[in-house]
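Practice record 12: protein with guanosine-5'-triphosphate.
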Amino acid sequence: MQVIATAGHVDHGKSALVTALTGMQPDRWEEERRRGLTIDLGFAWTTLPGGRTVAVVDVPGHERFVGNMLAGVGSVPAALIVVAADDGWSAQTAEHVAVLDALGVAHGLLVVTKSDLADPAPVLADVRERLAATSLAGIPGVAASSRTGDGVPAVAAALDEVLAGLPAPDPAAPVRLWVDRAFTIRGAGTVVTGTLAAGTVTAGDRLSLGGQDVVVRGLQSLGAPVERAGATARVALNLRGVAVEDLSRGDALLTPGAFRETAEADVVLTRTVDKLPAELVVHIGSATVAARVRPLDGAAVRLRLAAPLPLRVGDRLLLRDPGSRTVHGADVRDVDPPELRRRGAARARAADLAAGGGAAADLARRRVVPLADFTAMGWPVPAGATTVGRWLLAPGLADELAARVPAVVARYRQLRPLEPGPPTAVLRSALDLPDADLVAGLVRPPLALRDGRVVSADGGLPEPVQRAVTEVLARLAADPFAAPDAEQLAAAGLGPRELAAAVRDGQLVRVAEGVVLAPGVEERARRALAGLPQPFTLSQARQAWGTSRRVAVPLAEWLDARGVTVRLGDATRRLR
Ligand SMILES: Nc1nc2c(ncn2[C@@H]2O[C@H](COP(=O)(O)OP(=O)(O)OP(=O)(O)O)[C@@H](O)[C@H]2O)c(=O)[nH]1
Ligand SMILES: [Mg+2]
């Protein structure tokens, strides 16, 4: 399916042409039919002779209803521009074309209607000339009469060709469905309609509406139920989880997590303007939000929205001054712009925006950002960027930060030689990172992450401590259960802090306060006990180990605690 919107001055025959093409009457309201005047958006569809299905969003031409016109064309990739042969280019022809031009609509068909009333040739020539300076330059033009049917088949054929040339939307893109109508249907509940410009909606989908979850119970397209609809399409969604009173035109149904609401955006106007008003109205999709305008420099402008919108980088906005009715096109370049405090910051910002450095430049400025946030802004992940957990790091930044880690570790160890290395929180603050989890991605050999600290993989105790520990280990190698006593430890300079450091470093095993043995003691102790009759007494164990009660008592309890031995009721033990 393709979707096209009408455009043109009041009474020039838009709705009549839609009826001639589709056989459907787009004016839905009794008042519209009675007055012969379109007020709100109308919808009709048909299958063209070439086999292509087209849905038409019919807009009002009257100047009072331009707001409805804007909502109708906001998500539509092509326009059907209607000019009456007996009236020619008129005020709302100009206004509508200016809107389409600002939105960058580049596909369309010009139809000069009422060819039964006047010669269409001069109007065709005049309008084509006026379109030449707009995004619609060069679109084909056809003359027709909806009254006599003359030229209508030619309109259908030309339309088919225009639609064939439309770019294919991405069916896997996230969904942002701008609501153009919301109503209830007896028995079904809340229904919204809109033009799906990208992505796919399937029954059962969960979508986000102003931060709230809603479920698509079912959907229809062109009046018939469907299991799924892929862009471009007109869709009607039956929603669970929201009352019709909580919905209105301009709301957006979003793929959860794929968009972020923003009240501030930096944009670049498609054309430089001498002076912008301080307040403008922003239009995107079917939404309309007032905005304060801060010109930065040249065509770059900062917008402060009166209400947040789910904007993405690359969105085209329509900025409109309701007083003068002038419109401007603007491309969203940043949906999370930096504060501008320093003198000259606005000018520098404008230069950056104008340069349009894309995802790489934006990420370089942010340095570190949650990956989900960055993609929700509308950026692709630039080449060379690295991810650490949920974070995205600018190209080169991980290496740059990793290179600074050894110095931080060395300095920390100098100040606290008995600690194995700094906790990740110390590196987080030293490297000015938003999250200590990032440190894991910045530690390179011979450093390693252990128990929440950055340590050297080759161990490392201060020189004198290492020497004393090595001596203790040498003695334990000869006599594995002869734990040094307090006096011996003190003589070697091994106080509680030094012992703790050696234990943390894996060089000694702490069996009890002041009782340290060599690594592997558990297996050695078990093997000695295996030679005893089971169960055995503490005294038998002590003899098997060849040690004193000072060591044997805590060692036996330590083995109990580790599940090597089981203590029985009569104070004897056996191996488990
Ligand atoms: N003679 C003649 N009359 C036409 C033709 N097309 C439309 N009309 C008449 O022109 C009047 C306006 O037509 P509409 O189709 O309602 O015009 P519109 O552009 O939809 O008007 P709005 O939606 O109000 O902007 C109606 O009375 C139509 O019958 C045509 O090709 N020939
Ligand atoms: Mg109409």
